# Entry
Amino acid sequence: MNKERRKEYRIVLLSEEVGWSYINVISKTHDKLIDISSEGAFIESKLLPKSKDVLEIVFVLPGNLGHLKIKGIIVWCRWTKLKKSNLPLGFAVKLIHTEDSLKIMKAYVTYLRNKQIILVSKRIQDEFFGNGKGPRIV
# Structure
């Protein structure tokens, strides 16, 4: 059995995007954020940087809070699809925090976790009651 190496819990996401670019490069790429913790993330992408490349990751904060830009280092890439696997192509990035960015990231991950709970609860409610045609759970 593999030992879990993460210190923080990882949140699997349904529909979040993230921007990223190489350091000092103007053009940014937007890809799907598959999972996240305050320490790192897995980003689904057809553009695959090399292991140990340093990137700038841009997270869009909720409401009008703006963006959180954090440097990250690529720790591994999934460059090929396995025959019996539905795992996406992409890369894992370890975030390089300042003291302030870590606090903001922990709050952002908590927000995403709560958002996912609400989305999944809504899907279950829709399945069970038929798209809002039954009793409403509040």
The CA atoms of residues 51 and 57 lie 15 Å apart. The chain has a mean pLDDT of 84. The first helix runs from residue 99 to 129.
